[in-house]
From TrEMBL:
It comes from Methylobacterium komagatae. Gene3D superfamilies: 3.30.70.100. This is NIPSNAP family protein. Signal peptide: none annotated. Residues 3-105 form the NIPSNAP domain.
């Protein structure tokens, strides 16, 4: 198992738009492509409170590549994403990391 941590840093005032897009659009596509989430978090205290951090669970890097690429190539997804950004961009930058659990982790 591999865990992907993704951090979306939003343009100023755009975090509510990102949360709404995940809530009403993105999660349906995650379900469609079998993308399993562990959790979504906003920052209460830290360097950037306009960020959304979330974790995805994958069987392997090959599993991630197949599912993520299919999701990203979905024409309905790209159209809906573009519609949510027609007035102005939502995300300023994205960081992602792939994490492997230790032998003493409760999540393995």
């Amino acid at each position: 198992m591999i865990v992907e941590m993704r951090v979306y840093y939003c343009a100023p005032t755009r975090l509510p738009a990102l949360l709404d897009r995940f809530r009403t659009i993105t999660m349906g596509f995650f379900e469609k492509y079998g993308i399993e989430q562990i959790g979504f978090f906003t920052t209460l205290v830290g360097p950037d409170n306009h960020a959304l951090t979330y974790f995805l669970k994958w069987d392997s890097l090959a599993d991630r590549e197949a599912k993520w690429n299919a999701f990203q190539a979905d024409p309905e997804w790209t159209a809906k994403r573009a519609e949510t950004e027609k007035d102005k961009p939502i995300v300023a930058r994205i960081e992602n990391s792939f994490l492997a659990p230790t032998d003493f982790s409760t999540l393995r």
